[in-house]
Structure formats: structure tokens, C-alpha cells
Amino acid sequence: MNSPSPPRSPWQQFYGAIHSLRRRWYGKHARHLPRPVISVGNLHWGGSGKTPLVAAIAAHLRDRGLAVCILSRGYGSRGRGVRVVSAGQGLLLDARTAGDEPALLAGELPGVAVVVGPDRYQDGLEALARLAPAPELFLLDDGFSHLALARDLDLVAFPVADPFGGGRLFPSGRLREPLAAIRRANAVILTGAPDWGGRGAALASALLSRGFTGPGFASVTRPGTPRLAGGEPLPAGARVLLVTAIARPAAFTALARDLGLDIAGELSFPDHHLYTDASLDRIADAFRSSGAAAVLVTSKDRVKLLGRLDVLGVPLAELPIRADPEPAFWEWLDREIARLRETPSTRSPDSEAAS
């Protein structure tokens, strides 16, 4: 695995210089929350397997007895201000108000709080003030490029299907930041890997030329049992219409095919699509003409479609997936968490928020 050579076009160099200036400015002005912050993010525009990874890490920390709060921007949501999506006892807001990924995380992670808002520093302060128990640790969802909030650990996901995004920045490439930004990361995770063996280490080695010096790990995507909205499993080999609003629908199709499902057709919408009434009618028309037994969606899409297709006579089914990082990742993370908790904390909210 080799990372591509740095792009040399004038536009790419200019765009990279802007990112460098931004990083330096926030290096001096980032605000600090009074609890440890772990960021889980990526360098790509979507489709890195980040959300299942966030869910796996949050569940692991919760099961270790920590009070965890996920902070998210709530991308694509129609809500305003700081919103508590879950206080740890289940979903409090719908996907349109919370955002699809926060709603998914809130529904799947009992015992984990989820808070969304445009300013994740203020979100964290609100969480400390309003939640009981107060968070002992924050997970910053999609946080690698959110430099306004200081973090104690930066974990970066790289999708196995397109780990380096072609090596180019937007708009001609698929990267948010230059690959050299990875030097800020504490660890990298290759997501969607077919197996664990040596793949994470190969990723870390490929990034050495970009200044990365931390460890690399691999995470396998494990599909669950496809189930109808009522909870009953789909029969083996069931004929399904795939409907997605995710960045990489091909990966979802591959999982469904590997499970032996009969794919009657595929209907893809843009990532984070909110599913308007016109979208629902389009799904219903495609379903009726496909001969499928159900519409099969991702967990992220289920939170936006649940209850809305029933009135159109369209059965909804979900194919759940989970991230399964290699054991070495959990050993490394546990050591890092212990180090953060054992270090005498000098964290305090910034003066402007405390005043």
C-alpha cells in the first residue's frame, strides 16, 4: 500500500496552503473542554465507515464504566442550537431535527449521551451542565477537521476501497485536507477491511512519508441479520430493493449480495438525503415494479424512513452493520484512556464561556 505523490497543480498547492494557515491559527485558538476529548474523523468527503467506528468505540468505553457523550454537528438536520438527542435513555429527537447519524447513534447506544449543535465546544459545556451523570469523556464525531475544539486523541478512518482519496483535494479530488494533515493524528484505522492481518500496519507505513508516526489498525465490517421493521428476520435469499442515501452505496450492495439476498434493484439518493414525499413516492413506485418482498436500507436510512413507507404499503427492512476493530486497537485505546485519566487534569472551560 503506497500513498500517492503530493499533488503539484497550482490550485492544489494553494488550497493546501489555506489548510496549513487554518491549522496554525486554530493551534493557538482552539478551545478546551474540562474533560478528555477523543476525535473520530476522516480526511475524505464521506463514506469512510466512521459512524460504525464511533458506535463501537462509544460502546466499548461505556462498557468500561465511563459516562460517554458523543458530540456531533448533526449534518443535514433542520434543528437549531444545542440539542440533546439522547441523555442515555434512548432517542429524544427525530432524524430531521437531530441529523441521521446522531439519531442512529442515539437509538443504538443505550447508556451513551448524544448532543448536537453547530459549536461543539458549547455543546460540550451544555452536556456537562444538563446531563446526569455528567460526561467523563467526549467523543467528537467527524471531528478531525473541526479544529475549533481541542482534543486529546485524534483517530482517523481510511476506507479500504479508497484509502487515499486519489491524493487530491476538493474540488478535483475526494480529500478535505492534504494527506500531510495526518501528522496530527494519534492513530489511523483502515475501515471495511476484509480481515485484520497486517493491514493497519501497512496503512501506517504508507503514511510515514506524510509525517505520520503513530500506530495503524484494521477494522472489519460485520453485517448483522437483515430484519423487517417489526423485528422478524428476512427469509434467506429474500428478494429486496436496495435504497440508500450514503456516500458509498456499492459497499452496501456488496454486503447484501454476500448474504445471499436476491437484489431486485437499487435506488440511490445523495448522502444524508432527508427523503421528501416525492422521494417516498419514487421508492414506492420502484418497489411495486421490482417484485421485491421488502425495501432494504442501512441503519442510517432506517431512522429517516421508519413509519413513513408503511402508509404506502412498502415493507421496510434494515441490514445492520458494525465495526469490529482488531484486538490490538482496543489494547492501545485502553492504555491511552488510562493515561488521560491518570494525568492530573489542568483542563478548564475557556474564560469566555466561564464568565
Order of strands, widest sheet: 3-4-2-5-1-6-7-8-14
**Rg computed from alpha carbons, rounded to a whole number of angstroms:** 21 Å
Estimated share of beta-strand residues: 15-25%
Helix and strand composition category: alpha/beta
The number of E-state strands comes to: 14
Main sheet specs: 9 strands, mixed
Q: Quickly count the helices.
A: 11
Fill in the CATH topology of the largest domain: Rossmann fold
Distance between the termini: 50 Å
Which stretches are poorly predicted, pLDDT < 50 over at least 5 residues?
351-355
- From the spread of the alpha carbons, the general shape counts as globular
The portion of residues assigned to helices is: 25-40%
Task: Compile the SSE list and pairings.
Layout: H1 10-29, E1 37-42, H2 50-63, E2 68-72, E3 83-86, H3 95-98, H4 100-108, E4 113-116, H5 120-130, E5 137-141, E6 153-159, E7 187-193, H6 199-206, E8 216-223, E9 227-228, E10 239-244, H7 249-258, E11 262-268, H8 277-290, E12 294-297, H9 299-305, E13 316-318, E14 321-325, H10 327-342, H11 351-354
Parallel strand pairs: 1-5, 1-6, 2-4, 2-5, 6-7, 7-8, 10-11, 10-12, 12-13
Antiparallel strand pairs: 3-4, 8-14, 9-13
Helix pairs in contact: 4-9
